[in-house]
Design goal:
heterodimer; A: 474 residues; alpha/beta; Rossmann fold; six-stranded parallel sheet; four-stranded mixed sheet; 21 helices; 12 strands; B: 238 residues; 6 helices; elongated; binds iron/sulfur cluster
Chain lengths: 474, 238
């Protein structure tokens, strides 16, 4: 998809004044926050598991070249193919060549942010291959011709009336059926998409993880669409970026314990599926070909640098769900595949800061993103790195340069910084008076217009950091 | 792409400020893969004995699966027939070509019509075994192979999984351990083509974040939990 991240400010403003969007955002986010809180309350070891999960990924990233080589060798041993792709163009070309060789006309797709990242649907359509999204959220936005607004809930911004409208328009001949209830909408989608699953020539999925030990790819879904996508067609193509690899089944098991709880607030998603190579001798079903596309697209440049921590991201969206800025402006304002705090860090890294220079400013410094991130990614710190880089590049317009200077002034004076932002966090928590929601935020009218802001959970990052240092753990 | 592989690996190494791993560090990684250390097991993943089975049933039901507990293999046909009749579901099913299932006395339920093989588009009910039940989250572990086609877990609206209690394990790690021990395989050879962890029926919350059951996969997952191992011991049922 073509990034429009440069237009963040204008798009954000539009989101703020879109009443329907505000209603959808308010309702949906509350649900995510509650479910996550409850799921974590059921697992007292959650904090300890976060620390271990982060350690697993750090170990993997420190040996990323070797684990990718081992993964590749094990995929080959099982009869699969690995295609290394430096950029979007190369990845699209590989998908096209597989489709052409198999004479594919219809391609089913599981949800894949990488596919969005490389603009796969438009590309396939331009080459006379029909891509059909099968995750319901992706399907509806494909029908509506718009990008996803959330990495795990692509249709986060839509209400059921908008679903019904799109189905009425795109499912001809089903007009007699009522389309008012969610259940009826789902049944209709099930019927329409079942035909596509059965007819598809190639199935394309993303990967939540790649496992070096066994040469497997892993997808996590609730609908079962990814499984039908990868089981029924002649070929299964996995789109994965290079940082998805983890060493062993035990490693992935630990990370899975924090993933679903952080994402949807489930203890585990309905389907967690480990795919290893094509159909084996004697297997009655499964794809005849198995391909893994290993996409770099700017990630290798993050290794070893100030943004390496971002490569731990498991795309759970907890940071997005807890971000007051996202909650105010919605996902489309971010102008590309990734939104919220993770998008504000990742998008400049992948498309260039000059095309996304406002994103790192989309922060209230409340620190909630880092506090909830299961992989303990220091998102606020990395947004700050981008702002500093941007400052150095002198691309910053005068007004925000002024603001940034003020901020740098504070940042260089840790005591003052702590006072301002630590005090702010405690103040906000007090304003919410235990309700966990704020009706209005002092000095930031725009952000709380029409919606509630989740109150900070506990203390700010700086407070916690100082406490940890005092405790000798720094 | 031929050039991309080296370019990506070199860029990673540049970032890490080193060349390819030296023999010693590479050997340490290989060792970690062979030893595949387990990490912290939370309390919910450490149940034993009857408590483990109880946890499995409780979590599976909490995730909208249904569970019928029966005394032995001989009661399997009756339990399945009763489940289908109670819900007004068809008594025709497609069954995994699995040795353990084949030894069950199906002739006791002449109204059940069973076909063996993979699932096709119009199959309404499937009957399979499961490699394991994972108590931690009430999850079925299904491993593909000639005797367990993957389509049986996906296409029919109703999936009935017959699981022996001896195959209920405490944690994800214990399930992997069983697979490692029972197959004796390692590394690239360890996993069958497809391993599915299934926790309840298919669902979606894509419309207004409200969970609805039965989207693309089965609308109903019914687990027939068999108390005694039956003949053939622990080895079958995969
Ligand atoms: S940055 Fe952290 S919280 Fe945000 S999506 Fe990634 S893993 Fe989840």
């Amino acid at each position: 998809m073509q990034p429009t991240s440069h237009a963040f400010k204008a798009e954000a403003e539009r989101g703020l004044f879109d009443a329907a969007l505000q209603r959808a955002l308010g309702k949906a986010r509350g649900t995510f926050l509650d479910r996550r809180r409850q799921a974590i309350a059921r697992l007292p070891e959650f904090e300890a598991l976060r620390e271990i999960a982060r350690g697993i990924k750090d170990h993997t990233l420190a040996n990323l070249d070797a684990y990718l080589e081992i993964f590749e060798a094990n995929v080959r041993t099982n009869g699969g193919e690995v295609h290394w792709c430096a950029n979007a163009e190369e990845a699209r070309a590989v998908v096209l060549s597989i489709c052409r060789r198999l004479g594919a006309r219809l391609v089913t797709k599981g949800k894949s942010m990488i596919a969005e990242e490389i603009g796969l649907n438009d590309f396939l359509a331009a080459h006379a291959i029909t891509p059909v999204e099968t995750d319901l959220g992706e399907y509806i936005i494909q029908l509506r011709g718009e990008p996803p607004s959330h990495i795990i809930a692509p249709a986060f911004h839509l209400n059921k009336e908008e679903w019904a409208e799109a189905f009425a328009k795109h499912h001809p001949g089903r007009g007699a059926r009522p389309r008012t209830e969610r259940k009826e909408l789902l049944d209709e989608a099930r019927e329409v998409l079942r035909e596509r699953f059965l007819a598809a020539d190639v199935g394309i999925t993303g990967a939540n993880f790649l496992i070096a030990e066994t040469g497997s790819s892993v997808i996590v879904t609730n609908e079962g669409n990814g499984d039908l996508t990868q089981t029924l067609p002649r070929a299964h193509v996995v789109l994965a970026s290079i940082e998805k690899v983890v060493p062993t089944l035990e490693d992935v098991s630990t990370i899975l314990r924090v993933l679903a709880r952080s994402a949807t607030g489930q203890d585990i998603s309905t389907y967690t599926t480990f795919s290893t190579g094509p159909r084996r001798p004697g297997d009655p079903d499964g794809p005849e070909e198995y391909h893994v596309i290993l996409l770099d697209n700017g990630r290798s440049a993050l290794v070893g640098g100030e943004f390496q921590d971002m490569l731990r991201c498991i795309r759970c969206a907890a940071c997005i769900n807890h971000c007051p800025v996202y909650g105010a402006v919605g996902g489309h304002a971010y102008g590309w595949v990734y939104s919220g705090p993770m998008g504000a860090v990742l998008t400049p890294a992948l498309i260039g800061i000059e095309r996304a220079r406002d994103l790192p400013n989309a922060s209230s410094f409340c620190g909630r993103c880092e506090a909830v991130c299961p992989m303990k990614i220091p998102l606020p710190r990395m947004m700050r790195h981008w702002r500093e880089r941007e400052f150095e590049r002198r691309l910053t317009p005068a007004a925000s340069r002024y603001g940034l200077r003020a901020w740098v002034f504070l940042a260089k004076r840790p005591a003052l910084y702590r006072l301002v932002f630590g005090l702010a966090a405690r103040l906000l928590a007090r304003l919410a008076r235990g309700r966990g929601r704020l009706r209005s935020l002092p000095l930031a009218g725009g952000w709380t217009l029409g919606r509630d802001l989740p109150a900070p959970e506990g203390r700010s990052f700086q407070d916690l950091w100082a406490a940890r240092r005092r405790a000798g753990g720094g | 792409m031929a050039g991309a592989r080296e370019a990506i690996l070199n860029a990673i190494r540049r970032g890490l400020r080193r060349g390819p791993l030296d023999a010693e560090r590479r050997a340490a990684l290989e060792r970690r893969l062979v030893e595949h250390p387990s990490h912290l097991l939370p309390a919910i993943a450490r149940h034993d004995g009857a408590e483990r089975v109880r946890r499995f049933v409780e979590r599976a039901e909490a995730e909208f699966a249904t569970v019928a507990r029966i005394a032995g293999p001989a009661a399997v046909p009756g339990a399945i027939a009763a489940y289908l009749a109670q819900r007004n579901l068809p008594s025709t099913a497609v069954m995994a070509p699995d040795q353990w299932l084949e030894r069950v006395p199906w002739e006791d339920e002449p109204l059940l019509r069973l076909r063996k093989g993979r699932a096709e588009a119009d199959d309404a009910v499937s009957v399979t075994t499961a490699f394991a039940g994972i108590a931690e989250t009430g999850t079925l572990m299904l491993a593909s192979g000639p005797a367990s086609p993957t389509t049986l877990n996906l296409l029919p609206e109703t999936h009935i999984a017959v699981l022996r209690e001896s195959r209920v394990v405490a944690s994800y790690e214990e399930a992997w351990q069983r697979l490692r021990e029972e197959t004796g395989r390692v590394g690239a050879g360890l996993l069958p083509r497809n391993v599915m962890w299934v926790t309840g029926p298919s669902r979606s919350a894509d419309i207004e974040q409200t969970i609805e059951l039965g989207v693309h996969g089965p609308r109903r997952v019914h687990i027939v939990l068999v108390a005694e191992a039956g003949e053939g011991g622990d080895g079958g049922g995969r």
